[in-house]
Amino acid sequence: MALDQVVGDGSEKLRLGRPGTNATSVAFRSSLHETEVVAPWSDIDADALRTAVPWRTFRWWYRGQKHYSGTYWAATEKDHVVYESRLELARLLLADFDTSVRGIVAQPFLLKSTFSGRERKHVPDFLLFTADVPLVVDVKPRHRVTRPENAVTFDWTRRLVESKGWRYQVFSEPPQAELENVRFLAGYRRDWLFDLGLLEELHTADLDGIPLKEALKAAPASPRLSVRSALLNLMWKQQFTFDLTTPLSRATVLRRSR
Q1: 220 and 111, same structural domain?
Q2: What band does 174 get if pLDDT is binned at 50, 70 and 90?
Q3: Comparing C-alpha atoms, which of 179, 192, 258, 195 is closest to residue 228?
Q4: Rounded to the nearest 10 degrees, what angle do helices 176-185 and 224-236 cross at?
Q5: Residues in contact with 244: Cβ distance below 8 Å, sequence separation at least 6, in sequence order
Q6: Which of 5, 37, 126, 157 has the least C-beta neighbours within 10 A?
Q7: 144 and 182 together in one domain
Q8: What is the pLDDT, as a whole number, of residue 61?
Q9: Residue 32 per-residue DSSP state
Q10: What would the pLDDT profile of 11-48 be if each residue is shown by its tens digit?
Q11: Among residues 169, 157, 164, 55, which one has the least CA distance to residue 106?
């Protein structure tokens, strides 16, 4: 949907002009600097945003709060990353599980532009540094994505992000089984809790095509619970993969990553 097209659900329509990338500014706060950095969007590069800290002040819980906010310790970052809703936490979990993601920044910057006689501002939810190009993510429940004001914001942001050769995503509710599988495996994401020798023994074992219940027998000299935990850590790191679309169980078949 283009910004110079009609945006709406039929009951309400907006006709908008195009924002220019040269007229758009970006502001961010770097952990390396005490001051706010402001620059034209066309001048900024991804490396400058790697040390960005969340734009908004983190909101701790308070009575009557409508949002579920918190911090998540990301294995990718080896540090905590903030989120402001359960849906944002879901996207964080999936990003942390994604082996192509090299870095995660929450609320990375503020975009500001004026078009159609109105100043517009927007803070994306995440910036993911991937093995390919940066990915800017906005998180919104599916039933709210197409609301006129949200549709305008997402389309405007997409145009700006893609003008730099980056990718843009509006993330809504993921498949339930996939999220629950990743959420479960995330409990085994802290590498320092596992015996390196056992991890190596399991990693080199011939487990391709073996059900999880049989893979638990691959290191008979080690306690069964230790073997189970180590296998789940290797599955979190995707050294062994499985069908994410079905709930994880003892019958789950492991596949060695290629």
Answers
A1: no
A2: very high
A3: 195
A4: 120
A5: 177, 178, 181, 182
A6: 5
A7: no
A8: 60
A9: T
A10: 333 334 444 555 899 999 988 876 789 999 999 999 99
A11: 55
CB 31 within 8 A of CB 53: yes
The closest of 82, 86, 164, 93 to 123, measured between CA atoms, is: 82
Strand pairing category for 167-171 and 135-139? parallel
Q: What is the pTM of this model?
A: 0.88
Q: Which amino acid is at 58?
A: F
In angstroms, the CA 203 to CA 242 distance is 15
Residue 38's alpha-carbon distances to 31, 49, 127, 217, 239, in angstroms, are 15, 12, 17, 57, 41
Six token digits for residue 121: 């501002």
Residues whose CB is less than 8 angstroms from the CB of residue 11 and which lie 6 or more positions away in sequence, other chains included: none
Is residue 114 pLDDT above 90, yes or no?
A: no
Single out the residue of 135, 39, 123 nearest to residue 82, CA to CA.
123
CB 257 within 8 A of CB 238: yes
Strand partners, 170: 138
Looking at 153, 171, 189, the residue that finishes a domain is 171
Q: Total domain count for the chain?
A: 2
Tokens representing residue 111 in the block = 């975009």
Q: Print the domain residue range for 110.
A: 6-171
**What is the pLDDT at residue 63?**
62
Residues in the chain: 258
